[in-house]
Specification:
Blueprint lengths: L7 H5 L5 E8 L6 E8 L13 E12 L8 E3 L4 E7 L14 E5 L5 E5 L6 E3 L2 E9 L6 H10 L16 E10 L9 E10 L6 E5 L4 H6 L14 H6 L7 H20 L17 H5 L3 E4 L12 H8 L13
Antiparallel strand pairs: 1-2, 2-10, 3-4, 3-5, 3-11, 5-6, 6-7, 8-9, 9-10, 11-12, 11-13
């Protein structure tokens, strides 16, 4: 699953379209956290990053929440931000396309210089950074998904179908030492954003968990409250850690309707709505950030959503959570 083409703005400005976010403890360097932001679906071999954007990672410490049927974790106010920006491309042709330089501002106060497509990346004390084209890890039968939404019946027939097989994205990878996390946090929430660069920074896109905009917010026909509202750009502009109260009601109405639809496709209801009509997973989805335990080792399988689901069951989690490139 992924986050491609998550609204009208992403269609109009694909360079700002975040296609994926991953966050996981490094399998090679214990004590380090790996963050991956992918952008630009269908990236050609000569693709470069935008010199008009800020590519940003945000991390906040998390604490367990005591809200019944709410989000299982609450984000703290302290935050670390990792910003990466790129120069305008300079002349050059060939397999690597035009040359481009970038700088990444990290929590230690240093800046890491990188050259796009350089496999060695850039390094500073406790930080490594890579930027360049990579194979798109998006694995889903997109036409079958759209048919499922349109017909209300499961339309998946080929478990090996990969809609974007062989396509590339631009990938930005940052590896940092977990000692830079706020307050020595063990559990962190991670989001990625693209913003306009300059004196006024406007958030264009943000990603926590995959496919929240496209599969949980895009379908309109099940939402009796806001049936004509294209909600995804509003959602993408919002702050993942501080949702705007002006639109929270619209987000909840859409999620209550669409989560019930997805739950119904196997002919039974595993997550019945509460008496007020709210779906029991809506608040968890609205807390839209990856949850990572940076003290646990890398786990390639079974870690995604494991921490959130364990918290809902009142159990201790077993894995690092987050989202890995498995």
């Amino acid at each position: 699953m992924s986050h491609h083409i998550s609204g009208p703005r992403a269609v109009a400005e694909p360079i700002a379209d975040i296609t994926d976010l991953y966050a996981f403890p490094s399998p090679e360097h214990p004590g380090r956290l790996v963050l991956v932001l992918n952008t630009l679906p269908f990236a050609p071999p000569s693709a470069v990053f935008s010199d008009g954007l800020i590519y940003r990672f945000r991390l906040r410490p998390l604490t367990a929440s005591d809200q019944e049927d709410g989000a299982p974790f609450t984000a703290g106010g302290e935050e670390i931000v990792i910003d990466c920006v790129f120069s305008a491309p300079v002349g050059g042709h060939g397999a690597n396309g035009p040359g481009q330089e970038g700088t990444c501002s990290v929590p230690t106060g240093e800046t890491v210089s990188i050259r796009v497509t350089d496999d060695c990346g850039g390094q500073a004390d406790g930080v490594r950074v890579f930027a360049g084209p990579r194979w798109d890890p998006f694995i889903m039968d997109a036409p079958a998904t759209l048919k499922t939404i349109a017909t209300g019946k499961l339309a998946f027939t080929d478990p090996g179908a990969i809609y974007l097989d062989g396509k590339n994205v631009l990938s930005l990878v940052v590896e940092i030492d977990r000692t830079v996390l706020p307050g020595g946090a063990e559990l962190v929430g991670v989001v990625a954003e693209t913003l306009t660069r300059g004196s006024l920074n406007v958030r264009l896109e943000r990603v926590g968990r995959p496919e929240v905009p496209n599969l949980m917010l895009a379908p309109k026909q099940f939402d009796s409250v806001n049936r004509d509202l294209e909600i995804r750009d509003l959602y993408n502009m919002d702050d993942a850690f501080h949702l705007s109260r002006a639109y929270e009601g619209a987000y909840r109405a859409r999620l209550n309707a669409n989560l019930a639809f997805w739950d119904s496709l196997d002919g039974k209801t595993d997550w019945p709505a509460r008496e007020d009509g709210a779906h029991p997973l809506t608040e968890l989805i609205l807390a839209d950030f990856l949850v990572v335990d940076v003290t646990k080792p890398y786990a390639e399988q079974g870690s995604f959503l494991e921490i959130e689901l364990a918290a809902r069951r009142g159990e201790a989690h077993r894995t690092c959570g987050g989202r890995a490139l498995n």
